[in-house]
């Protein structure tokens, strides 16, 4: 409100014709968007061009997901794994966990019953931490869970990475990579997408994953093996 009043006072104290008013922000906008001399939400700065045809939006080819054999009776497992992956959060850092423990210990020390017995104090702090701290657990992908992960995430991951790679191709056509390293490669969908985009220039692919079963599955998929 004070700014508005100050602006009104300035305009009434120093009256100027409208064509002599100077607002740096508006002149900057006019320089960035030619033809727009003032802030006007009704202005058609795209020149009646649909937003989907804006020059910043790339029209990329449709991505075809490599075929893989469907697995019966895995819908519930796929849905359960998908829900679990979406619900996962980052683990609590050790420093943050220590800070919470110290805070709880100081709080419990105010209780005379706990303050006199160190063992009770320690147990109370642990119970409180268990109730208030997210219990992050490492996922161990064995053979069966790797297959469920493939059914749940392979197509979406392949499509997303392919989209990014094709945008790079369209914007930087001279980029021709020769090697690829995929850390946390999973089912190898990044390798598929990279090969479809730069198969002529790529000469070496390196897939790294902590799960041996996932690496075996990725190798079979990349080689086109049909597991009976």
TrEMBL record:
Q: Which UniProt keywords apply?
A: Acetylation, Iron, Iron-sulfur, Metal-binding, Mitochondrion, Transit peptide
**Coiled coil location:** none
Q: Would the keyword Protease turn up in this protein's UniProt record?
A: no
Q: Origin, by domain of life?
A: Eukaryota
What GO biological process terms does the UniProt entry carry, in alphabetical order? translation
Keyword Iron-sulfur appears in the UniProt entry: yes
Q: Please give the name of this protein.
A: Methyltransferase like 17
Which organism's genome codes for this protein? Neovison vison
């Amino acid at each position: 409100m004070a700014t508005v009043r100050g602006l009104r006072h300035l305009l009434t104290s120093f009256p100027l014709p409208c064509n002599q008013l100077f607002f740096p922000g508006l002149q900057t906008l006019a320089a960035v968007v030619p033809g727009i001399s003032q802030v006007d939400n009704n202005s058609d700065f795209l020149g009646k061009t649909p937003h989907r045809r804006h020059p910043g939006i790339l029209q990329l080819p449709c991505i075809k997901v490599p075929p893989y054999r469907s697995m019966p009776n895995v819908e519930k497992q796929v849905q359960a794994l998908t829900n679990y992956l979406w619900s996962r959060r980052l683990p609590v850092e050790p420093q943050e966990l220590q800070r919470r423990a110290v805070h709880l210990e100081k709080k419990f020390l105010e209780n005379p019953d706990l303050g006199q017995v160190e063992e009770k104090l320690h147990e109370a702090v642990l119970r409180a931490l268990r109730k208030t701290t997210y219990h992050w657990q490492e996922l161990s992908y064995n053979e069966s869970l790797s297959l469920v992960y493939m059914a749940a995430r392979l197509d979406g991951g392949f499509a997303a990475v392919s989209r990014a790679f094709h945008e790079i191709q369209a914007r930087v056509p001279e980029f021709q990579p020769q090697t690829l390293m995929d850390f946390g490669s999973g089912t190898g969908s990044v390798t598929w997408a990279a090969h479809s985009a730069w198969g002529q220039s790529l000469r070496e692919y390196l897939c790294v994953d902590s799960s041996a079963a996932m690496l075996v599955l990725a190798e079979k998929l990349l080689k086109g093996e049909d597991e009976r």
